[in-house]
Specification:
Chain B: This is ATP synthase subunit a. The complex is a heterodimer. Chain A is mostly helical. Chain A is 90% helix and 1% strand. Chain B has one domain. Classes of the chains: A mainly alpha, B mainly alpha.
């Protein structure tokens, strides 16, 4: 129960111990604890962010599907419209073509008729001359009866 | 042990006095209450061994800190560090890098030294006496007080360092003039200049007493508690004087040991907490007074 020189020894031990504990235990452990706390907080924040991102992505996906569906419906409608249009067009074209073919054939027929008539006309005059000369028994001058022949040809 | 016990038990006063005696560097007892010519080897060696044990554990843990999977000793020390750090954060007004290490050193070291009280009172002294006997000393004159905190030197060494730090923190945070002003205007303040002058000596004396009472109460509280606990263990050990009293010794010894676990930790905690509180008060600015 006395105060002695031990006091000084204890003071020295105590001071050194404080310094030592600060250096080897307190600061490393506090740093580790802070670090751990920060990492846990970061992890929680990251997981929350991930969850939010996932939600956002799901929302986006839903939106994209909706848009795609809409687009598909539009495309189908367009295609249908185009389909009917094309059929209509084809029909019109076919009708036109048919008309054209018919008109061409008609023209050809007319031409053919005219040509037949022409050749018939030239043959009629020579036939008439030949018939007349046979009937009369003598040569008939075609030039002399030119006017009569012409009249005959006109009648055909 | 039975040999050294036999005469001691037959003479209870001598038994207790023997246990309360310290081993000094030259075998002399201190002549007065304050005698700086003697050095208590037992107190110093015991506290040094415990300090080294704590330092070694701290070094071992601090060297291999595993941030992800704390195990064993790291868990224990991490818990203690976190606990002390929480106390410092709750009490201390500003961030300070020395208060935490100071507090944990006080807490753990004092707790370790107090724990020596739980070890049976005769075990360590008899062991030392036995070893000394091997080296040719008379075992009956080998003194060994095993609990460092039952010694004023240890408790006042702690308290004095804290006292020095209180003054240092006061000057650091209030300035030398600010600290002086606390002495002049605290606890009684007045706006009238004449009253101020009248109150000045009273204030100086009151504040001085208040400041000095801090380390004195710190040191004496720990010393008193541990000394009383040790003395009770010695008295309980005295019950071994006869066979019919032995059960009483066992029962009382167990009860007091269990109760003393509380005292040991509580005293260490109180010393640490008051240190933080005092230093926290010292770290407040002048305007907060």
């Amino acid at each position: 129960m006395n105060v002695t020189a031990t006091l000084i020894g204890q003071l020295i031990v105590f001071s050194i111990l404080i310094w030592f504990i600060k250096a080897v235990l307190w600061e490393p452990v506090i740093n580790t604890l802070e670090d751990r706390k920060k990492r846990i907080a970061d992890g929680l924040a990251a997981s929350e962010k991930g969850m939010k991102d996932q939600e956002l992505a799901a929302e986006n996906a839903k939106q994209a599907i909706k848009e795609a569906k809409q687009e598909a419906a539009e495309i189908i409608a367009q295609a249908k419209a185009r389909d009917t249009q094309m059929i209509e067009e084809a029909k019109n074209k076919a009708v036109e073509e048919a008309d054209r073919v018919i008109a061409g054939a008609q023209a050809e027929i007319d031409q053919e008729v005219n040509r037949a008539k022409d050749s018939l006309r030239t043959q009629v005059s020579s036939l008439a001359v030949a018939g007349a000369s046979k009937i009369l028994g003598k040569e008939v001058d075609a030039n002399a009866h030119k006017a009569a022949l012409k009249e005959l040809i006109e009648q055909i | 042990m039975s040999e050294s016990n036999a005469p001691a038990i037959s003479n209870p006063v001598e038994y207790i006095q023997h246990h309360l005696g310290n081993m000094t560097h030259n075998g002399e007892r201190p002549a007065s209450l304050v005698d700086f010519s003697v050095f208590f080897v037992d107190t110093f060696v015991m506290s040094l061994i415990l300090a080294l044990a704590f330092a070694f554990a701290a070094w071992k843990v601090g060297k291999n800190l595993d941030p992800d999977k704390p195990t064993g000793m790291q868990n224990i020390l991490e818990t203690v560090v976190e606990f002390v750090n929480q106390q410092v954060k709750d009490i201390f007004p500003t961030a300070d890098k020395w208060v935490g290490p100071l507090a944990i050193t006080i807490f753990v070291w004092v707790a370790l030294m107090n724990t020596m009280d739980i070890i049976p009172v005769d075990l360590i002294p008899s062991l030392v006496a036995g070893v000394a006997g091997v080296f040719g000393y008379d075992p009956h004159h080998v003194y060994w007080k095993a609990v460092p905190t039952t010694n004023l030197d240890t408790t006042f060494a702690l308290a004095l360092l804290v006292f020095g730090l209180i003054i240092f923190y006061n000057i650091k945070h209030k300035g030398l003039f600010g600290y002086m002003k606390v002495f002049a205007t605290h606890p009684f303040s007045a706006s009238n200049p004449i009253v101020k002058v009248l109150l000045f000596p009273i204030n100086v004396v009151m504040t001085a007493i208040e400041e000095v009472a801090k380390p004195v109460s710190l040191g004496l509280r720990l010393f008193g508690n541990m000394f009383a606990g040790e003395l009770l263990f010695l008295l309980i050990a005295l019950l071994a004087f006869s066979y019919w009293a032995m059960p009483g010794q066992v029962v009382l010894g167990v009860l007091w040991s269990i109760f003393h676990i509380l005292v040991i930790l509580l005293q260490a905690f109180i010393f640490m907490l008051l240190t933080i509180v005092y230093l926290g008060l010292a770290s407040q600015g002048t305007d907060e007074h």
